[in-house]
Write a structure and sequence with these properties.
There is one protein chain. By secondary structure, the chain is α/β, with parallel strands linked by helices. Helix content is about 30%, strand content about 25%. The chain has two domains: about 325 residues, Rossmann fold (3-Layer(aba) Sandwich); about 100 residues, ANL, C-terminal domain (GMP Synthetase, Chain A, domain 3), CATH 3.30.300. It has twelve helices and 20 strands. It starts with a helix and ends in a 7-residue tail after the last strand. Bound molecules: 5'-O-[hydroxy(phenylacetyl)phosphoryl]adenosine. 5'-O-[hydroxy(phenylacetyl)phosphoryl]adenosine (DLL) binds next to helix 6, strand 7, strand 8 and strand 12.
Length: about 425
């Protein structure tokens, strides 16, 4: 099912000509209206007319998160402020928030892109979708809301939190679709179990649109089992739009990038050079159809690779792998690169563990210590030491085989690790706290 068949199945050649026209237009507007871009292009001796083919994008400067901070709050806005009708922000862990601006046309395009996402999950008029992304400055809430409403589904704007009420609404209203972060989807499933409600059996849930944070395949399986739905991964970021930049179809093999709206590159994060399809690198996005805040070559820090082949669903847009990490959440432990997603993958391959874990990195005299805390399932957790020791050994071996370094494992009682209703905080790095 497509929302916009013509766009989503556009032959490659036509797509590229649309992209080129839109790229030229975007660069022109950025040059004329955003001093930051005008200066950056002038410094490189580039004029908008120099962009004659799609590969000329490589002449353009990158934009980084730091650039957003340096130009905060209005420095990247390309229209008079009286044309802006919505402003979102992402909190970020340090410093100023990143702010994003939308004209009415930007909001319409965004709603269309989210309608495509939801139609790919077979959401239609008659469905009831519970939207448990946070409403507010975060783009998840209103982004999913507008898309679902455009499709014609009934939206339950439950926002995040109060899991018991979420479950009550899912049951009583006959909710068929759920939108939230994958970690919150797990909390809903877990709370259901605690209340003696098996949502997989008793609810009408059929599909879920889960994104805003990484979700490994085993975690997806866990969500699908406890909620009884098909879990689709959706991707986006405040700097570029919000959710709706890329999404899975029912084949669940890669996320289709909305290439009529975004120009996609994958680069080597060290050298900045473009990588061919299939190679892992940093995703770089250029907006092709944004009025209020066009962004050239944004370095997302998200690590992906592109599939070289097309998808049986008929969409011609290129697919990217799930996000396997971020250039900035990569931990270097005793010189070895470690991604939290690798740890999650390994943990969820071991029977008897819950998908709730935390990674603690510390430094004992001069040596980095990696410790993984993970919850054990209710039926395995006992007062006896022996079964837990065996399980601990199994987990350690699994982690060591994936990471190639020695890891300490701490098995904890079910329900003891802190839950997050938005994005989960998985890593505690104590090495920065001056504890030596
Ligand atoms: O998280 C937008 C969003 C809302 C996406 C709802 C999907 C659903 P930010 O708060 O700006 O925007 O965070 C963007 O979150 O660079 C990724 O690192 C991460 N992220 C987003 N989607 C996924 C995903 C929203 N599907 C940052 N898988 C991005 C892994 C994701 N990471």
């Amino acid at each position: 099912m497509y929302w916009n068949k013509e766009a989503e199945t556009m032959p490659r050649e036509k797509l590229e000509s649309v992209q080129l026209l839109r790229l030229q237009e975007t660069v022109k507007r950025a040059y004329q209206n955003v001093a930051f871009y005008r200066d950056a292009l002038d410094r490189r001796g580039i004029k908008p007319d120099d962009i004659r083919s799609l590969s000329d994008v490589s002449q353009l400067p990158f934009t980084t998160k730091q650039d957003f901070r340096d130009t905060y709050p209005f420095g990247l806005v390309a229209v008079p402020m009286n044309r802006v009708v919505r402003i979102h922000a992402s909190s970020g862990t340090t410093g100023k928030p990143v702010t994003a601006y939308y004209t009415q046309k930007d909001l319409d395009v965004w709603a269309e892109l989210m309608a495509r996402v939801m139609t790919a999950g077979e959401l239609r008029k008659g469905d009831i979708i519970q939207n448990a992304y946070g409403y507010g400055l975060f783009t998840g809430g209103l982004g999913a809301h507008d898309g679902a409403q455009l499709v014609g589904a009934a939206v339950v704007p439950s926002s995040v939190g109060n899991s018991r009420r979420q479950i009550l609404l899912i049951q009583d209203l006959g909710v068929t679709a759920l939108a939230c972060t994958p970690s919150y989807a797990l909390i809903i499933g877990e709370t259901g179990r605690e209340l003696g409600t098996d949502l997989a059996k008793t609810s009408k849930l059929r599909v879920g649109f889960f994104g805003a944070e990484p979700c490994s395949e085993p975690m997806r399986k866990e969500i699908e089992d406890c909620l009884g739905l098909k879990a689709l991964d959706i991707y986006g970021l405040t700097e570029i739009l919000g959710p709706g930049v890329a999404h899975e179809c029912m084949n669940q093999r890669g996320l289709h990038l909305a290439e009529d709206n975004f120009l996609v590159e994958v680069i080597d994060p060290e050298t900045g050079r473009s990588l061919p399809p299939g190679q892992k690198g940093e995703l770089v996005l250029t907006t092709l159809n944004k009025e209020a805040m066009p962004v050239l070559r944004y370095r997302t820090r998200d690590i992906v690779s592109l599939y070289p082949d097309t998808c049986p669903c008929g969409r011609t847009f290129v697919r990217m792998t799930k996000i396997t990490g971020r250039t900035d959440d990569m931990l270097i432990v005793r010189g070895v690169n470690v991604f939290p997603s690798q740890i999650e993958d390994a943990l969820l391959r071991v029977d008897g563990l819950e998908p709730h874990y935390q990674i603690v990195v510390d430094r004992d005299s001069h040596l980095d210590e990696l410790e993984v805390w993970v919850e054990v399932s209710e039926d395995i957790f006992t007062d006896e030491i022996a079964p837990l020791e065996t399980l601990e050994l199994k987990v350690r071996k699994e982690l060591e085989s994936v990471l190639g370094i020695w890891t300490r494992v701490r098995l904890v009682e079910p329900g003891t690790l802190e839950r997050s209703e938005g994005k989960a905080k998985r890593v505690i790095d104590r090495r920065d706290l001056g504890k030596r």
